Amino acid sequence: MNLSKKEIYHKKYNNRMEFLNKEFKGSFDFKCRELQLEMGKACVVYLDSIVDANYISDYIIRPLINMELKVADVKNVKFELYSHIVETVNHEIEMIEAVLAGNTIVLLDFCEEILSCSGRKFQVRAIEEPPTETVIKGSREGFNENVTVGCSLIRKRLKDSNLKLESIFVGDKNNQVIVMAYIEGVAPQKIIDYVKKEINNIKNDYVFHQNIIEERLKTKYTAFDTVGYTEKPDILVSKLVEGRVGIIMEGTTFAIFAPYFFVENIIMADDYYLNKYGQNYFRLVRWISALISLTLPGLYVALTTHHFSLIPSIFVFRLAVLRAGVPYPTIVEIVIMMFFFQVLREAGVRLPQAIGPAISIVGALILGDAAIRSGLASNVTVLVVALSAISLFLIQSSMEPYLFGVILF
Amino acid sequence: MKRAIIFLILITFLIASIGCSYEDINRVIFVITIIIDVDEHEMVHVYLELFHAYRSNKENSEMGQRIIMKETGSTIGEALDKVNKSSSQKLVYSQNKVILFTEKAVKHGIDDFLDFLIRDQEMILRPYVAVVLDDPVTFLQTDIKQNEFIGLFLFDIFDRPLSFLVPAHQQFFQEINRREMGRNVTFMTAIKLNTEIFHPKITKASYAILENDKLAFFIEDREILMGMTFILDTVNQGRINIPHPNYEDKLAFVLILNSKTATSIEYDGNKIYLKKKISVKGTLDDAQGGLVLDKATVPKIEEFTKEEIKRSCLKAFNKFKDEGIDVFEIREVFNRVYPTIDIDNPLEQTELMVEVDVFIEGSSGLTDFNSQNIKYPTF
């Protein structure tokens, strides 16, 4: 049976409608707005929760209704639409992907092609100061969960045509968009290729967090970070300028960059904004505190169990008196107090912001004092553990202190 | 493979840990003072001043207490073993501040005790050594107001930079180094109790000179001690009494701010010349009846100071030469300069040649503003 072109297109139109309805069955926000045009039927398909309804009405539906076509050609339809992006989609799967990405699909029963128009409008958070990287002086802008906003913040700072922002989709089912940022000619091609290869090798169905990418990029068998992350566009830009490759992902506020070196844990965001002599001094303080955090408990155990001669006499006698009532060996005492600290820190992190400080007070004042009074620990041990714990937090990376804590044990 | 590596690391860690002797700081007794005495039967008496930290269940609080222990043995090691038998916790010598020998012990000879003190791994080389001129029991039972531990008090006295022109106090490692050099002549500060006025005090009384580890004699003469200090180049600070530049019956006092002594030795085949070039910087500290420090007075003060230093050096040298005791290590210095010439006792052939250079400074180095070509600012 030979069908005319019009009949074929109409059949395809119906099949596509059926396919869309089947795919989005159960989604309350799936909308199909069918229109009767001069040349035939048209259907505007979109997900109501991620599109701008006014935009669709004004720039897609209204021009379609007012359209006066003489020839049923998709090119003419494209010319008539006001939407700033109108693309042709060739396959049903791509059509589904476009709808999920927030585009509006226009199906026509007098053309073979499917049109995908822009019109997405995701709910985004305002640009705020990132809580983990506060600065005294310098930019207070931070990434939000929107990748486009992130790219715009980078572009705003880096007006260079060599800045490349390549989008890659990861996750076989959720098609998460990530943007790989680098400066062509500055970032080594080897690194760019390596990052691209590793991202393309991700075979997960769903990717929601860039930790999956981070895990792939990290050097194996090291406890330290070899991939850095930041919430601040100015920092990411400074890293790109140094030849690193940045990765921004939809849905997360952190941008990651590679490679990353240990020394960067000691460098703070506002080091470059404040007086260089002062900041060099504070960098030295950070190095010393990193050293303190790692070695102080061990040094304390060594001094108070073996190398008494290295402690001034007056302090030796005082230490001996302070520990006189403690029933456990020094090493056990240290481990107990450090475990207390780990518990308190974990509780402080997990608790809501309003209760967190209260826990800190309970930990610092009540538990510390009670531990001394009960004879579980001596004053100096509490001081050593507290100093070591506080020193941990002078290290920039929010994960590194945890790691240092583990090494400390 | 990974498991094997982890296992190996654990085993290494365990073996390394087992090899070390760990004692918690509150589970040891710290030795602060060791006094070594010897009796007529050549039995060694060891007196220990100890610090012990403990928790008093009666008072319900942590405390530190001073303990004195005494034991006797044929050697120090035997005596200390006996102390350990009556001690609830291990004795630790890391805080040992002074090792004192009684007069009887230095007369007997300290070589019998030194081997244990050098060889024993628990002992440290930092403590000061001194001779105590009193009975050890009375000495240790004395209540010193400045510190409840006599060892700590003595350490403070010995460790403080010298403000008198006396030889430096010897630490144990200096003592054992010195006895290995030259003709085995060493010296130690001698201390004694002074109970005459107010509270009992411990004072530096004299210096014990030891030859071949046995007491030769004590020196109390202030001038000899001053001479020794300049010759041995251990001056830190101190006062020298000189005649008053203007009045014959009065005295002036020069405060020595620093001094440097350069030593050289020459041998002409007959005599050895020990040359000491002493450069002294001082200031006028005090003068009976007052003194105007002017252009005429300063050279006089410098001259008197030179004479005083020179005299004390010669007196000290002659004293030791007469006694035949090579406290200035002339043999050691001579052997270094003339290693091929073997003279058994070079001291007998030695003459001391002292050259003293004194610079007296006032509150300002400039004492005469009139003769200086000073340009004052004009307005």
Automatic annotation (TrEMBL), chain B:
The keyword Cell inner membrane does not apply. It is found in: Membrane. Its main location: membrane. It holds the Pfam family Spore_GerAC. The keyword Membrane applies. It comes from the Bacteria. Gene3D superfamilies: Nutrient germinant receptor protein C, domain 3. Residues 207-362 form the Spore germination GerAC-like C-terminal domain. It is a lipid-anchor. Keywords: Germination, Lipoprotein, Membrane, Palmitate, Signal. GO terms for biological process: spore germination. Residues 22-159 form the Spore germination protein N-terminal domain. GO terms for cellular component: membrane. InterPro entries: GerAC_N, Spore_GerAC-like, Spore_GerAC-like_C, Spore_GerAC_C_sf. Belongs to the GerABKC lipoprotein family. PANTHER family: SPORE GERMINATION PROTEIN B3 (PTHR35789). This is Ger(X)C family spore germination protein.
